[in-house]
Backbone:
């Protein structure tokens, strides 16, 4: 990465997610010349957090380059619908103005960015399974139709939140039935700081009450933090294995809402829950291979995909597949 | 109902629920001599609300009788586990002290009270399906083991909350698939005050975003308010009929966790969702008849059941089945 001389045309890509906010500035040949990272921001639930994170990441990315040389900017935003809320729009616009970049950013869905991080093709399907879960049908690099992605209260089946909640629900059921704790239930209680993991009769009743109160004392989305316990215990706990299977099936059902089985365009999988090598990711790939056609690709660095989309918006000829490949390598 | 002369022994029953808080004072022959009603209070989520409601209902019930003549008090509390929280315990104790009643109340689960409101028998099973859903195995008038009742975030499948959430989820799915709105989806959008119910392409996308934001702008438990829309539309909307069937199956699954199929003791159904004549209640009765043995009874007035349990605790001989019958008539 090198500093811009301030005269060259630049483009900017961004990815505002629940876990991190990232900005990448590249020159006209697609060479990175500025990067910034900040905490995640969820514009739907915390309108302020996304703007603060955006301002910080922009500040870092533009520390050594001239923001006024940026000719195009594409920002992927988890829960793209949030921009319809005037307060979110206003706060993001303020953060943007203060960055010194003169062009307005184009906000796109995190699905658009994930698809570009998986393939240079213009058409296909993308599934993100991280804290939330959503699928989109992509045409000419833009998501036309989506399924899922309605947030933890109303949907996101098979997501990290869903996995964590199912882990607690399975633990409560074990306690209701006064059965011995399996590896997953024991890990859930330990992870939440249970005073003991003794069970049997009154102990099970006490533990169940404790668990319900401990979970309700936190913001619901914190349940996503328990998702790794399901992956870690699924080889030795049939309860965890059952949750993994159901998650994969639910994610495939979400995909099926936006993709025809005969479709042969690329199918991009993104997000930690869908990653290859993870139990849900592997189970998902098995089901996808049986139910759909076309190549299955893993999304790579989202902010690289966003920068590539920004390049394509000003100079399509420069936004080649090989430039994309380099940008999404991360 | 008549005023006590202040010398007679009295007992007090109470029912603190999410929808209402009720107190009933009866004399030693089970004749009502004081009643009080106040708003509902959920001790799990709003520790203060239950105490305020209890104080108000106690004040009304004891307006014309001498609280110091009360020899026993039994109070049913939704989410009985809440009493483990010190702040709830302290606030309820303060409301109690100010009532002038000198004996300490015995707090029991709302399941105990509902069972007593359904049968004078000491043993059996009870299912409550209102805003939440829970089942309990009862022995000697006390719930020994429960299933469900973990609150909207972690369980309560088949409850009013669950019905309302499924109604919204079904609506979102219709919008995701860009299908025409059925009666349930139209009713959901109208009930929440949607700006329009036009659909198709961009309209469906806008409506979906609006719906997710409208639901998330309210406390999640407000979703229970949409449950009646499912009942109202299930005869002309297969989507609503499917939700009704699933709710009934889930409630039976909860029952099956605490009741053996061969068990012949009474099975008491309580709560608005389980009421006879409602779609879920009728579907539930069909499934229960096929899967379990023993008589199926409907719980009647819960506060009458609580007063009867209070009578039984001081003078078991006076707490006859016919006294109970009169008290639970409401």
Residues:
């Amino acid at each position: 990465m090198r500093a811009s001389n301030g005269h060259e045309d630049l483009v900017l890509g961004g990815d505002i997610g629940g876990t991190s906010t990232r900005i990448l500035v590249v020159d006209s040949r697609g060479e990175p010349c500025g990067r910034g990272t900040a905490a995640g921001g969820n514009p739907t639930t915390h309108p302020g957090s996304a703007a603060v994170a955006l301002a910080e990441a922009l500040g870092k990315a533009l520390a050594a380059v001239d923001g006024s040389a940026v000719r195009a900017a594409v920002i992927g935003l988890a829960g793209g619908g949030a921009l319809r809320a005037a307060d979110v729009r206003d706060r993001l616009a303020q953060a943007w103005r203060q960055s010194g970049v003169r062009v307005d950013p184009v906000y796109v869905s995190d699905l658009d960015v994930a698809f570009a991080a998986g393939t240079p093709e213009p058409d296909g399907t993308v599934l993100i399974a991280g804290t939330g879960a959503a699928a989109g049908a992509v045409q000419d690099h833009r998501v036309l139709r989506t399924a899922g992605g309605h947030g933890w209260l109303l949907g996101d089946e098979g997501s990290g939140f869903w996995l964590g909640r199912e882990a607690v629900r399975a633990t409560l059921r074990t306690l209701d039935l006064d059965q011995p704790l399996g590896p997953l239930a024991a890990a859930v209680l330990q992870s939440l700081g249970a005073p003991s993991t003794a069970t049997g009769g009154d102990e099970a009743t006490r533990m169940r009450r404790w668990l319900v109160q401990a979970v309700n004392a936190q913001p619901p989305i914190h349940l996503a933090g328990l998702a790794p316990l399901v992956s870690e215990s699924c080889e030795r706990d049939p309860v965890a294995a059952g949750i993994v299977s159901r998650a994969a099936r639910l994610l495939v059902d979400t995909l099926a809402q936006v993709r025809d089985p005969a479709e042969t365009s690329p199918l991009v999988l993104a997000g930690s829950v869908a990653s290859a090598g993870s139990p849900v990711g592997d189970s998902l790939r098995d089901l996808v291979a049986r139910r759909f056609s076309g190549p299955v690709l893993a999304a790579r660095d989202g902010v690289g995909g966003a920068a590539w989309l920004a390049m394509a918006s000003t100079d399509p000829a420069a936004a080649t597949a090989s430039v994309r490949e380099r940008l999404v390598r991360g």
